[in-house]
Task: inverse folding
């Protein structure tokens, strides 16, 4: 799949009525590309993902929805070999540090032997498993830039 194909798939996934593992965490931006929906405290500007109803920095409950940056750096990762029924294993699960001091836990969409700490990563949407009927389950993922 080319980068252009991936972008088209990502746009369709962000816009279409597809089944996400956790709905409401991804929305299309103005160009149709997927973006993570996070929270930003109106009092201290601390960011969160997923959205927290209470700011973990200042305890304010005045939280605004924000579109988070779509690129970050891999902080750490692990390879998962046991998962719920229907999930494809093994898969890599990692923490991506986004600008604005937000750390996101996500599937990493690349082979384990290609992963390295501090590598630049970009948000994507991909199939991570299937539900009981065999229909694909989507989630946000991160791929190398
Ligand atoms: Zn705050």
Result:
């Amino acid at each position: 799949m080319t980068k252009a194909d991936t972008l088209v798939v990502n746009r369709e996934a962000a816009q279409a009525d597809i089944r996400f593992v956790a709905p409401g965490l991804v929305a299309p931006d103005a160009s149709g590309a997927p973006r993570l929906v996070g929270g930003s405290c109106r009092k201290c500007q601390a960011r969160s993902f997923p959205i927290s109803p209470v700011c973990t920095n200042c305890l304010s409950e005045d939280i605004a929805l924000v579109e988070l940056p779509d690129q970050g750096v891999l902080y750490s990762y692990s390879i998962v070999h046991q998962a719920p029924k229907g999930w494809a294993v093994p898969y890599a699960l990692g923490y991506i540090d986004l600008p604005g001091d937000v750390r996101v836990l996500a599937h990493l969409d690349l082979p384990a032997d290609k992963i390295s700490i501090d590598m630049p990563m970009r948000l994507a949407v991909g199939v991570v498993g299937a539900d009981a009927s065999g229909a694909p389950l989507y989630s946000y993922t991160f791929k190398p830039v």
Remarks:
- DSSP finds one helix and nine strands in the chain.
